[in-house]
Amino acid sequence: MIVVSGLAKHYGPKTLFEGVQLQLNPGHRYGLVGANGSGKTTFLKILAGDEAADAGSISFGKQLRLGVLRQDQFAADDERILSVAMRGDAEVFAALEELDALARGEAPAAGGAEELAERMASLNEVLARLDGYTLESRARETLVGLGIPAEALEQPLRTLSGGFKLRVLLAQVLVGRPDVLLLDEPTNHLDILSIRWLERFLQGYAGCALVISHDRRFLDAVSTRTLDVDYETITEYAGNYTQFLVEKASTRERKEAEIARAERQIAQKRAFVERFGAKATKARQAQSRLKQIEKIEVAELAQSSRRAPNFSFQQERPSGKDVLAVEAVSKAYGDKRVLEGVGFQVRRGERVAIIGANGIGKSTLLKILVGRLQPDSGSYEWGINTKVSYFAQDHHELLSDPKTTPLEYVWEICPMEPTTYVRGQLGRMLFSGSEVDKPVSTLSGGEAARVVFARIAVERPNVLILDEPTNHLDLETIDALAEALQSYEGTLLFVSHDRHFVGRLATRIIDLRADGLHDFPGTYEDYLARDGDDHLDVEAVVLKAKREAQASKGREDGQLSWEERKRRENRRKALPKQRDRLLAEIDAAEKEKAEIDARFAEPGFFERTSPEEVAALQRRQEELDAIAERTMAEWEAVETELAEFEAEA
């Protein structure tokens, strides 16, 4: 348990929050939400001990272990990836390292063989007590679950890109099995499959987790409580992000109604005093009304820190009906081929989401289409009257001159317009006064993104190409952007790992997979209903294709080795037992869930049961849901494998 009492933090004259009173309990996952700059990351840093509060205190339970996702990804660049993740369980990793050194004779114990044996026995006791012998397998499972290829785990960390290094650091935190998880934007740089894996992990996590994320669907799937950083404090709400929005709006409406009611009472009593105050027969009643007015308290409605830009995207003129034709485009980086024979057409008014696992070539494809990269082979052609605007994933690359200001950057493409017009466009993106004259190098990621969108609005394109446009934006800004794009009458091609954003916008899905391009005319929800999301795991797709090819070749050539035939026979015999075990686990989970539902349905249950026990039962239901979902997936895989064996017989 963590108890926060009277916590406050200020930066100069700006108050982030003050008077914060919270109790953070195990078994709950808290979504930490608020506008950019409201203090979410600062609050996590204070909890982690990386920053000091200006007032108040934080009390931690005894021997509480914190797991914090920090951005120090280059500290272990030369260490192998697997070891970096294993370091998350520091005590076990140190014991394993020492035991290995002693066994190799690299760190002989003082005193000779007897002391050496005693020390090794002591280390083995530590590993047995802490379940240390599973550390490597746990680290491997976590890394692969987060999308790190199994064959890369022995390579040094420096061989990975920045996004994949962050995945390794996230794995390190999770492997440590902390009592409290502090995760700041953990879904950044994850593809959709890895986000789903992280969701399932957190849903089964028994400790206390605090998560900052701009991914609304992720917050809805993970959080059981919501901490709202607004009105210069932090307020706790029950439920996930969507439930929080409803409750917060309802609370605001109640406060507005209370203020309006108080103001009406005051107005009525003042009207009475003004009308009858001069009459002797009513003087006593008028004085009574004045005293009543003095006693009425009119609460002041606090100003929210949440502000959303006013996005608007208009076309200068419509394009032709045929917007884009892509023919057999291929691209490689050295020996790594990311695009192979990609071809498709786009018609006017379509909103096309390009999805796929990280590294599959989504951003590369967009850069080719806007002329920032040349394909190795193939071609593309834009249709008649197309005018294209581009938002880069690393949008700072569009702000190439660090000394330029937002005003200069936008005015550059409309030099005939007055400065008031440009300031107005930037004002819609929440820039005011001297903020438009700051160098772009000083802007935050969210501010830089809003400057680029201001310029795009002035360009008035009929085709928008957006690469991860929601990165660095807060949830209110993402909602405002999605709403504007829904109203946009031009054509949209975009890449995003934000499933809620994709679900709101896409009218067509182009899925880049290891086995080629898959084109689906329809919404993202329809697409998932048909295909699910397992196809996004590049490694799994490639491995499955290799196995199928090898199995097919072996059957054709009759060249399966004795070892392979023996392995397959053992596997065939083991599958029925595994299937029965999984079915029993599913039945047990469903039975326990039904028993909890029955208790909830008993008359008077909630009146005679403590809130703590109700919360514990609800958490158990969530755990049972996760168990049932995971076990059902395993059972389906076993049934598929059994069917394949029966087909071969």
Largest sheet: spatial strand order:
5-6-7-3-8-9
Oligomer: single chain
Runs in which pLDDT lies below 50 for 5 or more consecutive residues are 534-549
Q: Please give the share of residues in helix.
A: 40-55%
Radius of gyration: 30 Å
Strand content: 15-25%
Find the CATH topology of the domain at 320-387 and 460-559. Rossmann fold
What is the CATH architecture term of the domain at 320-387 and 460-559? 3-Layer(aba) Sandwich
Morphology: globular
How many helices? 21
The N- to C-terminal Cα distance equals 57 Å
- CATH superfamily placement of the domain at 320-387 and 460-559: P-loop containing nucleotide triphosphate hydrolases
Helix/strand structural class: alpha/beta
Walkthrough of the structure:
- The chain is an alpha/beta fold and 649 residues long.
- Among the domains are: 320-387 and 460-559, P-loop containing nucleotide triphosphate hydrolases (Rossmann fold, 3-Layer(aba) Sandwich), CATH 3.40.50; 402-459; 561-648, Helix Hairpins (Orthogonal Bundle), CATH 1.10.287.
- It has 21 helices and 18 strands.
- The chain has helices at residues 40-48, 81-86, 90-103, 113-129, 135-145, 162-175, 192-203, 216-222, 241-276, 283-295, 362-369, 406-411, 419-428, 445-459, 475-487, 499-505, 524-531, 538-557, 562-601, 605-608, 611-648; strands at 2-11, 14-24, 29-34, 55-60, 66-68, 180-184, 208-212, 225-230, 233-238, 322-333, 336-347, 351-355, 377-382, 388-391, 463-467, 491-495, 508-513, 516-520.
- The strands form four sheets. It has a six-stranded mixed beta sheet with strand order 5-6-7-3-8-9, sandwiched between helices. It has a six-stranded mixed beta sheet with strand order 14-15-16-12-17-18, with helices on both faces.
- It is globular.
- The relative contact order is 0.08.
